[in-house]
Amino acid sequence: MKKIFFLLLVTGILNQSYGQETKDSKTNSKEIESASNLVFNPDQSVVTQHNTIIKGQKVSYKATTGTMPVWDEEGKAIAGLFYTYYERSDIKDRASRPLIISFNGGPGSASVWMQIAYTGPSLLNVDDEGYPLQPYSIKQNPFSILDVADIVFVNPVNTAYSRATSKEVPKTKFFGTNADIKYLADWIGGFVTRTNRWASPKYLIGESYGTTRVSGLALQLQNNQWMYLNGVILVSPTELGITRGVATDGALKLPYFAATAWYHKMLSPDLQNKDLTNMLPEVEDFTMNELLPSLSKGSSLSEQKRKEIAAKIARYSGISEKVVMQNNLDVPFNYFWKELLRDQGFTVGRLDSRYKGIDRKDAGERPDFNAELTSWLHSFTPAINMYLRNNLNYKTDFKYNMFGSVSPWDRSNDSTGENLRQAMAQNPYLNVMVQAGYYDGACDYFNSKYNLWQMDPSGKLKDRMSWKGYRSGHMMYLRKQDLETANEDLREFIKNSLPKEGMPAKY
Predict the structure, then answer these.
(1) Which pLDDT tens digit goes with each residue over 126-162?
(2) Which BP terms from GO are recorded (predicted)?
């Protein structure tokens, strides 16, 4: 995850875009009582009308902000999910209008990241590389996909303003890979019914753990809601429950190391002088064809071959051969973030390794803090609190949880990658696109390629799978150039995954 300050294309549009409450407002006045006695309302909303400029054209839209219940088997509300639903106002044929259902990750993270920095109609104030700026503010997003699709940003329980209705509701209803997928599928089914969007082409987009979430939801929606999707977009994907061995885990991180070292100019001149995407194929080839087999051999690897492999790892990673040998050819992520720029007195970020941090001491095996996350919270937290209250007119005394408590989280029986494959196999309309940042050390780009290879070992689905890389990190859209490119890639994906009129869903 970057950057954004754009000149408005039409003077005065920003002032008329925000905070215009309409007669459709349904906010319950009992929601806010006193700071010592807050009452959570799981079913309420407020509607505002807005205008913006996207790709040089005026777009009018309605924003519905509020909560909608999660129901149990007896029809009792056990939670309320906070959401923001953006609908373009001048659409006459809503049946053919795509609907994007958006989740972030964590698993305890709010939808704030993609809502006000990627696909939504508004952007937080950061510079062109994603670093915080003051004064904190919100501006228009000239690259938003709202021109081609409506979007609902959904916050799972304990994120943003989403809450269980009672402390007596078991946490196991929400906090686990499969529990999360089950109740969110039910909520989506209810939302689509309530908003009359069953006819619309539907897409899921998830970031980070949100990719685990939407991969599982694709099959859950088909099997239990009888809802069939046109597309799933995986932004900075996790491992999706696809098993890696020790050797595979050790090998696949090297291309990310190389990208980070290239960015910080820590490679030898022959590699450094190549463009990033011209340099990386060499590293990827070495990773799959030499490093992976060598790590698989363990202690049976000859000493001569061990030194040869160590020298190549050092060449591609920017760290010393001695350190590589000390770590048995498998340098941990934490150590790499501490080691790469140790002599310069800096660490590099986990989620975006373009960011640098300063530790108490240069010695040690891991950074003191995540430099990039601290930077992002600096800019995102004020922006979302201001935006919801002042621009979308949603007023509450509840705390907006950037990260909410979702512990303990049950990660057992994660088969979400296989679930997505099954959903694709059963639905010829369903397409998948992956978006990954080269400098992401949490969900690294080469592992996201590996996911696609292992999800579809026969290669029969590869024509409906695509992969896009960007020169930034976990939230690649924070970098202005990637914000524009990544949104354009989404537009193209939506366009290409809409079947031609009369085209049946069959093989």
Answers:
(1) 999 988 888 889 999 999 999 999 999 999 999 999 9
(2) proteolysis
